Automatic annotation (TrEMBL):
<dbReference type="Pfam" id="PF01608">
    <property type="entry name" value="I_LWEQ"/>
</dbReference>
<protein>
    <submittedName>
        <fullName>Putative actin-binding protein</fullName>
    </submittedName>
</protein>
<dbReference type="Pfam" id="PF07651">
    <property type="entry name" value="ANTH"/>
</dbReference>
<dbReference type="GO" id="GO:0030136">
    <property type="term" value="C:clathrin-coated vesicle"/>
</dbReference>
<dbReference type="InterPro" id="IPR035964">
    <property type="entry name" value="I/LWEQ_dom_sf"/>
</dbReference>
<dbReference type="GO" id="GO:0080025">
    <property type="term" value="F:phosphatidylinositol-3,5-bisphosphate binding"/>
</dbReference>
<feature type="domain" description="I/LWEQ">
    <location>
        <begin position="931"/>
        <end position="1173"/>
    </location>
</feature>
<dbReference type="InterPro" id="IPR011417">
    <property type="entry name" value="ANTH_dom"/>
</dbReference>
<dbReference type="InterPro" id="IPR030224">
    <property type="entry name" value="Sla2_fam"/>
</dbReference>
<dbReference type="GO" id="GO:0030864">
    <property type="term" value="C:cortical actin cytoskeleton"/>
</dbReference>
<dbReference type="InterPro" id="IPR013809">
    <property type="entry name" value="ENTH"/>
</dbReference>
<dbReference type="GO" id="GO:0006897">
    <property type="term" value="P:endocytosis"/>
</dbReference>
<dbReference type="GO" id="GO:0051015">
    <property type="term" value="F:actin filament binding"/>
</dbReference>
<feature type="coiled-coil region">
    <location>
        <begin position="639"/>
        <end position="733"/>
    </location>
</feature>
<dbReference type="GO" id="GO:0035615">
    <property type="term" value="F:clathrin adaptor activity"/>
</dbReference>
<dbReference type="GO" id="GO:0048268">
    <property type="term" value="P:clathrin coat assembly"/>
</dbReference>
<keyword id="KW-0009">Actin-binding</keyword>
Amino acid sequence: MAQVDKVFYQLTISISKALNPAEFPLKVKHARAAIIGTFHSGGAHSFWAIALRQPLQENRITAWKFCHLLHKVLREGHPLSCQQSLRQRAMLTELGKLWGHLKDGYGSCIKQYTKLLVTKLEFHDRNPRFPGSMVLKKGELEQIGGNDINYYFHLAVEMFDYLDEIIALQDAVFKSLTTFHVSSMTSAGQCRVAPLIPCIQDSSPLYDFLVRIMFKLHSNLPAELLTGHRERFRTAFGQLSKFYDESRSLQYFMTLITVPQLPPNAPNFSSQVDFGEYQAPVVVIPEPEPDEFVDNLVDMTVQQQRPPEVKLEPPQPAIDFEKLIIERDELIRHLQLEVDRLGRSVKSCNVENRELQSRFEEQMATMHAELSQAQDEMELLKMQKDELELKAETAPTLEQKAIAEEERAKASEEKFLKLKTMYGQIRDEHVKLLRTHGEVSKQLATSTKMVSEVTKEKEDIRCKLEDLEHQQARVEENLQQSSNVAKQENEELQTKYKELQEKYEDMEANKSAEIAELRITCENLSKSIEEAKNAHDELQSTHESLSGEKDTLSADLEAQKANHNEEIANLHQEIEQLKGEVAKTSKETGELQEDLERQIVSLQSDKNGLDEKLVDVQKMLEEREKSFEVLQCKYDEEVVKGNELKSELEGKISQVEEEREMLKSEKENLCQEVEGLRSELQTKCEELQTTQTSLEGELGEAKGEVEVLKGNLEEMKAKHELLVQNYDRLMVDRSDRECELQDLLHQQTELEEKHVATLETIGNLEAALRDAQIHGEVILRSLLEACVKSSEGLATRAVSEDEFGGGAAGSAAYFGLLAEELVDMLTKLGLGHEQYVADNASVEPFARKVIMAGHLMATVQMQGAIVCSSTSDIEYGEQIAEELKDWYNKHHIALFESLLSRSDTTSTGNVLNATKTHLQAIAERVGALSKKLDPTENIGDMFEEELLGMDKAIEEAAKRIEEMLSESRASDSGVKLEVNEKILDACTSLMRAIRVLVQKSRLVQGEIVAVGKGGATAKEFYKRNHQWTEGLISAAKSVAQGANFLVVAANKAVSGDAKHQLDLVVAAQEIAASTTQLVVASRVKAPRGSSNLAALGAASKNVTQSTATVVATAKDCTKRLEDSQDLDLEKLTVHQAKRMEMELKVRVLELEQALESERLLLAAFRRKNYQSEVDGAKI
């Protein structure tokens, strides 16, 4: 056996074993053999050749295992497996539809599995750079997609479809398990669940690709465009997470695959932070356990006990050292992985501890920084207060500036009035200058000078007004700042005092909560020490409880620090809010001054109340400190007791002592932290007291400052009102004057522009009129004469031409179309002439119509001559030709001469009407002439129709024979079926040979027409050789009739008795004779040495051989049917045999007589038919 045959044989055995109908999961060694077979054969051809012969449509278990095996081959087989399996999509689809009707659980699963496999094949066909295992190297996805966002968009849609099919399959599998109550640990359950392993292997990289593609799409496209993608991802994410969770819970998968773990929430694609934290899910397939090493069945110790003389023992089996080395390497690798994992866990614990320590340090530093910021803010507030005092002192100087600005505004008003009077004079002078055109240039020069001076003065006024506005704004700002200083300082002090009081209360509450928590921790420690006396096993639990309490303490400390941070942030926010409120309260200065006194009184009362509260708070703090000291003493006592218990248990458990020492050190650290917090609280209380005293002093100072500022504010208020009134009046006057000045300047510029534009247009129009008068008539006349002469030249040249070629020559219908087109063009020409006479501007369309009319007249005359010369009625044709010639000579010269005249339009219209009527009469006579054409005119069309009919008859005959063959296979059997199949196969081969013969004859005829037609068309060639064409037509009719007769004879032979086989012989001979006539007719005019003619001869021989085959088959089948119908003569009596012999002789005589009569009838029919064909040819 050759090596290739041996490999194929082994592959056949492996696949047949893998697809056995037993309800067990697919064995790994059989699947591995099939995968290796694809690499031996270089693809999946051998796999499919073996798999298609398995009972996939008979057994559901075989079909299910086949889908599983195919999935593994596509994933792990030869790289060409996907490409070569693509042609089997239809088979997979039909297999799924077949088993989809089964309702036992496997049917729906097979249907979904085939859909998944078809989707996988189509995906790899559209994306050939993705391997079957869907595993890509790092950066390979970016190489495949490049920078094409459209590719990534469509690739995501394809991957979503792929993932949907995987999810649908696993849903069907788990539903079948729950519906039929099948356990995954049974063989039936494992058979159903096993294909989910490659599904998990496919879905994990698909999810990874989708996440990366979605992040890339969101970084390059708007979020609204990707709404559909996000919705599909969310649904797929939930379904995939459920699939992995259910698979992870199956005990069957524990040793076969490590199911990946997806995050609890889908990633946020609009945030690049999530992409940085994203980790791809990993699927791990453990390596298959190596085959157990089978020791020698013979006890080797016995050999050692034997005497050394015996040396002819068989050799020991060789030890597989490579396998032992592999096992050792795997064990070493496994231990290294464990060591690495433990090292990473230790490192992560150390890193977490360091991070916690650094967080605590950072929080303490931020608290100190915030305290320093609060002190800086207090200093800034003091600086602002000093600045406001300085601004209040400089307020009188602002009044002087306001008075000076009023004086300047008055001076600017006087200048503006002077400018207004001057501008009125200028406008009057400008109106006078417009009336007198001669003095325009001089007045324009003076007016431009005046306008420039006015614009300069206007700019000066604008600058002064802007300065006034800036100064007025500064005065208002100073007034607002000086009026709001007192209220701002008082409000800030009051709010600061309240904030400090609330902060003190919060710190006190936190302190009490910490003391309570410490008390709880002390109680827990005492309980844990007492429980340590009971048993050695409970010591570990106490250790865990103490570590948990430590965590709670650290969490509480972090919470307290966070509260401090929040309080400081709230202080900053409130300061900013106060700044905003200061800006808003600028308009309410008067009312707030009255409220200040009330607020001062209320602040004094609040201060007294706060002093009392502070005293109470101090007392509470002292009491709580005392209680804390008591608790601390109790705690120390409990620690002493714990130390005593620890000394008693030292001899029993040394390890527990070490753990307790560690706990003790942690406890001391916590105590130190608590003491540190207490010291911080005390320092904060002292700071609050100092701030309280400073605030009281600042309040006293603020009272005096408020009283001083009251008088200043009243004075500034009155001055501010006066300044505002003056400023409003100045702004109104200024805006009115500016509007008037702008209107005047705008009117002046418009008038100047209009004057200049009118002068320019007048000059341009005069020059254009002179040029148009000189050149217009000459150009129009020359253009018209050129058009008329060119048209006349076209018409006269067409008359002088002798050759009238073209595909439309001799067609009366084409002449009629040209005549109608010429009539329409003549009517349009009359309208165009009238428009040209009325308006010279329409000369271009009129010239085009003239040229077109001349061309059409020449074409009509030429086509009419061709029609008349090609008709069979020569005399009638000559009459029409003379009339057409008279029409052309009579009308075309008169028509073109009348078109040159521009005065008399009526004469031109009369000439056009006479030309049209005469042409219509000629067209009617040509139409009557077309009815008298030669009957061989349409012989080419008849030939094409007969060839099409022959092709159609052959096609219908072949289809009918195929239908009869299928009907016979469905209804007959035995000898009858065998006879019918032979007859119909012979007829089918005959029809195929005839079809080839007809095709070759067409090629020969096309070659004949191409060589013999010359410059004429194919129809003219057929018309010129009409007798040969009629022979081809009769041959085509004979072939079509013979095909129909062959179908009828075949139907009789199949459905009738043996006597009808002779009809089939006659039909075959008749159609062979018809094809011979077609070959002879084609051979008559074919060029010598033609390759198509040689091919036609070969096709004719094939037809002859096929006819002989049909005749021989019919005779053989007749004989077989007769043999099958022979009687058993041994069972007949002598009388019966004699009687049958007489009947047969009579039957033979009758048949001979019928044969003679039929032969005579056939001869007469042939003579008659031949005579009718000859008469028809003569006609």
